[in-house]
Write a structure and sequence with these properties.
single chain, globular, two-stranded parallel sheet, 171 residues, alpha/beta
Length: 171
């Protein structure tokens, strides 16, 4: 699986635009007790001009207001292909902040892997992949979680058979 992933990753890297700059944003948790999903920027998901399939998925999940990290990250990531580092407290919606713009940029008609998301743990990889499935449920975007500790052959076969657009895994 490492050889297949390395080949796919190299293909993605070769076709990507070179990094021009790195944006780093830190969003502090709002001091209000009981609230980790602050919305001091007062943005709504409808403000982001997302594809109707992703808007419908967001609506199904019950989200209307974007958190601060989402309000900063989503517009930036939609308008550029440059790297972005966003830092925010646990539970503030960082996964949605980077997954929504990624989904918007993928070509669902392609049979190539177009994105590789690396996480430090298997649990986080599974969590991110589940969010991708929820947000992409009305699209033809496919994703797959890949990690060690289980048989590699079924994972490799699944990649070959399902042609995922996104691979989420651990190094």
């Amino acid at each position: 699986i490492k050889k297949i992933l390395m080949k796919k990753m190299m293909k993605i890297l070769r076709s990507s635009l070179p990094c021009q700059f790195l944006n780093v944003f830190t969003v502090e948790k709002k001091k209000k007790v009981g609230s980790t999903r602050s919305n001091r920027l007062n943005m709504k998901f409808s403000d982001f001009n997302l594809n109707e399939n992703f808007q419908k998925a967001i609506s199904d999940l019950g989200f209307i207001d974007a958190t601060d990290i989402q309000s900063i990250a989503i517009p930036k990531l939609l308008e550029t292909n440059n790297d972005f580092v966003g830092q925010a407290q646990t539970g503030t919606g960082k996964t949605i902040a980077f997954v929504l713009p990624l989904l918007e940029k993928l070509n669902a008609k392609s049979f190539d892997i177009q994105a590789l998301i690396l996480t430090p743990t298997r649990e986080l990889a599974n969590q991110v992949e589940k969010e991708i499935v929820k947000l992409g449920k009305y699209s033809d975007i496919r994703s797959q979680c890949v990690y060690g500790g289980t048989e590699y052959e079924p994972q490799i076969e699944s990649i070959r058979k399902d042609n995922p657009h996104i691979i989420v895994g651990t190094p």
